[in-house]
């Protein structure tokens, strides 16, 4: 038999196999628990994003949730007009380097238009990810994106692309998250200058497209109530063990299996179907979800527990927003700092420890020194941000949560090096310009390189040590 004939025979045999588990087979509780625990881990990021979609669906109009966070009905955008306020708790690890916007597109309902104005020399990037938090559209200064109208469509859309569309991007899922980021420095002049630029950023349904740039005054947005239970010190809860498996079939329908995932989908859907008929099984998989949440998910909030180890206890990830079937990294990032940019857009470095491998604590004082010629390797800009133990801004007297390119008054040492001072009390003299205030307790540091050089992308450049002084 020839190789091609043998291959055809094997393919025909494979097609005769059942597409998944036999739903009539009785299964054991221990097997259901095993499948449930695994499913909870790999599907956690997808339910996280899907439940944010359900929250945005409740927005009565475009506005700011609790007066601080972009909030808009599906297939529309809300933009901030300044840095994000420190009290928001919807998204962990925010930054005060850029002006944010947010839109959630229901691409299973309609394609959407993404409007890109002329940003001139200003740094900008639009994050566009699907339900898996994988990027599927490249829009930003690093891509040489031209002003114009860009179309996002769902996996099954077969409509007509109207004249005037610069480029079309297709998502693998019915849900997409769009987050524009536009650089702004700390000066009042730049905060004023950015307004005319950001006012022509927009996202809207295809049926509203007329080929003309729409403009909004984002500084006039109304304050809206939150549809979620907010107010805690940590991130708003988006994944709920008690209802996880009730919602999962809907989520998996929104995100068809990637190549090789078909059996995984069939397996968990079969267990869910069995649990519908057996209250004991249903109780068991919910118990397993609670255990997985505590034992598998919660430890991923700490950066020291995951990532690629680098010099001086920094960690990073090389496949941000391109996770595919790397379920561990995807879930780790979803828990600790969801909605990260692709590596060509932003490189992230994470730090929980000082150079002696001791947990960072505000009862100590630290320095971070860039030697002369060892500045961050970026084409865009860089920043070092400080977060509390829950990965949010920690209140401080000077209302400073990050230092970097946006700070025009940083003081360099006589030898050309740059030292940043991370401590609770105000440093003496002109060191205050380089001061990053920290709380009295546990905290972490987070380094961003926007539009990183190749050396930074490949981890050939990494941040310096955090030294206890």
Automatic annotation (TrEMBL):
Q: Give every DUF1214 domain span.
A: 346-454
Top-level taxon of origin: Bacteria
Q: What is this protein called?
A: DUF1254 domain-containing protein
Which PANTHER family does the UniProt record give? BLL3101 PROTEIN (PTHR36509)
Every DUF1254 domain range:
75-204
Which intervals of the chain form a coiled coil? none
Where does this protein come from, organism-wise?
Flavobacterium hibernum
């Amino acid at each position: 038999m020839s190789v091609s004939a043998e291959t055809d025979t094997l393919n025909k045999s494979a097609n005769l196999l059942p597409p998944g588990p036999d739903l009539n087979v009785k299964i054991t509780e221990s097997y259901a628990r095993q499948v449930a625990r695994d499913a909870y881990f790999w599907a956690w990021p997808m339910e996280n994003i899907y439940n944010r979609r359900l929250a945005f669906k409740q927005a009565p109009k475009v506005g700011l949730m609790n007066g601080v966070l972009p909030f808009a009905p599906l297939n529309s955008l809300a933009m901030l007009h300044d840095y994000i306020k420190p009290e928001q708790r919807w998204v962990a690890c925010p930054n005060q380097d850029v002006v944010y916007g947010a839109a959630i597109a229901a691409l299973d309902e309609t394609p959407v238009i993404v409007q890109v104005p002329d940003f001139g020399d200003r740094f900008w990037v639009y994050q566009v990810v699907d339900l898996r938090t994988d990027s599927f559209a490249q829009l930003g200064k690093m891509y040489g994106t031209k002003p114009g109208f860009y179309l996002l469509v769902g996996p099954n859309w077969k409509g007509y692309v109207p004249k005037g569309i610069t480029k079309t991007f297709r998502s693998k899922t019915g849900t997409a998250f769009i987050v524009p980021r536009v650089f702004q420095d700390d000066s009042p002049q730049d905060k004023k200058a950015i307004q005319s630029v950001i006012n022509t950023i927009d996202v809207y349904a295809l049926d509203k497209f007329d080929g003309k740039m729409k403009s909004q005054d984002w500084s006039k947005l109304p304050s809206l109530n939150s549809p979620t239970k907010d107010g805690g010190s940590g991130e708003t809860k988006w994944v709920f063990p008690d209802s996880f498996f009730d919602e999962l079939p809907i989520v998996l329908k929104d995100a068809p299996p990637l190549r090789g995932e078909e059996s995984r989908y069939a397996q968990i859907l079969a267990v869910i179907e069995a649990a519908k008929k057996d209250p004991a099984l249903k109780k068991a998989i919910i118990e397993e979800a609670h255990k997985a949440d505590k034992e598998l998910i919660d430890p991923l909030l700490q950066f020291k527990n995951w990532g690629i180890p680098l010099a001086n206890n920094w960690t990073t990830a090389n496949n941000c927003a391109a996770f595919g079937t790397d379920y561990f990294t995807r879930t780790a990032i979803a828990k600790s700092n969801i909605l990260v940019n692709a590596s060509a857009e932003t490189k992230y470095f994470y730090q929980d420890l000082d150079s002696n491998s001791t947990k960072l604590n505000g009862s100590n004082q630290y320095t971070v020194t860039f030697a002369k010629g060892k500045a961050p390797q970026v084409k865009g800009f860089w920043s070092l941000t400080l977060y509390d133990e829950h990965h949010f801004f920690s209140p401080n007297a000077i209302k400073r949560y990050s230092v970097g390119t946006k700070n025009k008054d940083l003081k360099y040492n006589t030898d050309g090096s740059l030292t940043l001072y991370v401590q609770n009390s105000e440093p003496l003299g002109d060191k205050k310009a380089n001061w990053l205030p920290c709380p009295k307790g546990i905290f972490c540091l987070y380094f961003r390189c926007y539009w990183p050089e190749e050396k930074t992308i490949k981890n050939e450049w990494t941040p310096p040590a955090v030294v206890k002084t």
